[in-house]
Amino acid sequence: MTIPGWLPVRPDLAAHAPYGAPQLDVPVRLNTNENPYPPSPRLVRAITDAVNGVAATLNRYPDREAFALRADLAGYLGHGLGPEQVWAANGSNEIIQQLLQAFGGPGRTAIGFEPSYSMHPIIARATGTGWISGSRDTDFGLDPGRAVTAIREHQPDVVFLTSPNNPTGTALPPGVIEAVCQAAPGMVVVDEAYAEFARDPAATALRLLPRYRRLVVARTMSKAFALAGARLGYLAADPAVISALLLVRLPYHLSAVTQAVARAAVAHAEELLATVAAIRCERDSLVAWLRGQGLAVADSDANFALFGEFADRHAVWQALLTAGVLVRETGPPGWLRVSIGTPEEVAAFRSALARVLAADLAGAAGPATGSLR
Ligand SMILES: *Cc1c(COP(=O)(O)O)cnc(C)c1O
């Protein structure tokens, strides 16, 4: 529904569309990069026990600082981090919102290198932060010279780097992140929502935290941790950064239930992350299969693959949906993104796509080229 003229909504918001990945009830949902494996019976029991443990105290506000959870998350991250260097919120989207409330806002700007995560510019707009759209290379990588030139030109208050990037799946070499940290006049936020899926998990920006005080590394429990429904995101940064976030966070933003559930999940990290190896394998074989079909596929270090290019990607998306497979119509024109599901779900996607390619939709769809753009 468009916003009616009589409603005095902020004029800078009125013309825009809300975030809206379709939530459709189809057999195979491969459109929002969730982990396809539900919690094991053991973890379900741990979560219900944890909720039980706090249920009797829900008349009280939760720990405003979520200190125990932050200590658990610091232990999970390693790299010598302590709880005072970790902050948590309702999804990493709220982490990003708090960062832009504190370090962006009216009269300030943030830059991202697109195609990238669609929520960065949406949250920038909601917080009154000017958005600068930087660009990526044709293979969806980011050349350090290109990044540094854009930063020198625009002097943004906040730089977003997404690695592995969504929707392309491409990871940034640590050298690019360092070059950006050295050039940026303000904050550098590395969104590592997919870090656990990276082919080289040691390439995390966490390693750089001791050297760059205005660097923030954002993570989430929504993807590898298979906990999208619980809403838990977190960051690692200098303790001074977290002091700044306390100025904008709502008191008691993280419910006692959320904190308890997240702590139970972190305690079972090993079990949850065991699915990551299977998903990585499935991803690599799907990427090889897609390339075998003559399609272009971006290198992926995440739990999804961006593939194309189609003369009419919407027709392909619709044909897959008709076959019961929901993928995401996102990224540059001509490309589609598919999340890595269970082997059965991926098999369903493959056979649906093979049929679509064979039918060629009366010439409406098909690989436009055999290489990236
Ligand atoms: C999915 C995703 C997030 C996670 O959002 P949550 O609010 O934690 O569910 C953050 N950044 C990127 C790049 C993502 O793709």
Which descriptors apply to this entry?
single chain; 373 residues; alpha/beta; Aspartate Aminotransferase, domain 1; Aspartate Aminotransferase, domain 2; 2 domains; seven-stranded mixed sheet; three-stranded antiparallel sheet; 14% strand; globular; disordered C terminus; binds pyridoxal-5'-phosphate
Overall description:
This protein is 38% helix and 14% strand. The chain is α/β, with parallel strands linked by helices and 373 residues long. The protein has 2 domains: 22-39 and 273-363, Aspartate Aminotransferase, domain 1 (Alpha-Beta Complex), CATH 3.90.1150; 41-268, Aspartate Aminotransferase, domain 2, CATH 3.40.640. The strands form 3 sheets. A 7-stranded mixed sheet has the order 2-8-7-6-5-3-4, with helices on both faces. Helix 5 (119-126) links the parallel strand 3 (109-114) and strand 4. The protein is globular, with a radius of gyration of 21 Å. The two termini are 35 Å apart. 45% of the residues are buried. The model is unreliable at 362-366 and 369-373 (pLDDT under 50). The chain binds pyridoxal-5'-phosphate (PLP). Pyridoxal-5'-phosphate binds at residues 33, 91-93, 117, 162, 166, 191, 193, 220, 222-223, 228, 233.
